């Protein structure tokens, strides 16, 4: 009898826990606001690039108040290499202004309030909730979506539905670490164009036969 998806997810998480003991967020930050800014910058950009930009950025602007009063031109110049810098600068300054005006300078710690900030969608909110505040949350980015689809843990391509599906399959106590491990596994092993199937700790649990057959034959 084939395993249920819940049982299979238990095995998947067990394998990933051994392969990725410490699934830490790759974005370097010192506090919730820095993580918020770095996550906004990471859209359509690598974490490596963001980590190259943020040291100077966070030494120039140290608090939400500093960012709320920042010059668009100066901020855009500092974040230009992350791409889409005009939209990102607008979102960061707007978020900082709202945090100062409505939340006494502190990043809010609920999904509902985070989603009121410019530039913040569910993915960014879940990153902040999980990694800044320890609130159980499931982060769904392009890597998590790909791994979840290949493992057939969901039939959806919609991030919001995938978040629901994975949240149902994983114990709430493992939402943060589990989704982080799925993300890192997708980034480094279960890659989009060249998945490393023959090195994958989940090979025997994965039903993505097309990818596996191609790698086995190569």
Short description:
By secondary structure, this protein is an all-alpha fold.
Average pLDDT confidence is: 95
Top CATH class of the largest domain = Mainly Alpha
What would CATH call the architecture of the largest domain?
A: Orthogonal Bundle
Number of helices: 12
Strand-residue proportion? under 5%
The description of the largest β-sheet is: none
Structural class: mainly alpha
C-alpha Rg, in Å? 19 Å
Classify the oligomer.
Answer: single chain
How many discrete structural domains? 2
Q: State the fourth-level CATH superfamily of the largest domain.
A: Hypothetical protein, domain 2
Proportion of residues in helical segments: 55-70%
Care to describe what's here?
The protein folds into two domains: 5-23 and 138-217, Helix-hairpin-Helix base-excision DNA repair enzymes (C-terminal) (Endonuclease Iii, domain 2), CATH 1.10.1670; 32-133, Hypothetical protein, domain 2 (Endonuclease III, domain 1). Helix content is 59%, strand content 0%. With 218 residues, it is mainly alpha-helical. The protein starts with a helix and ends with a helix.
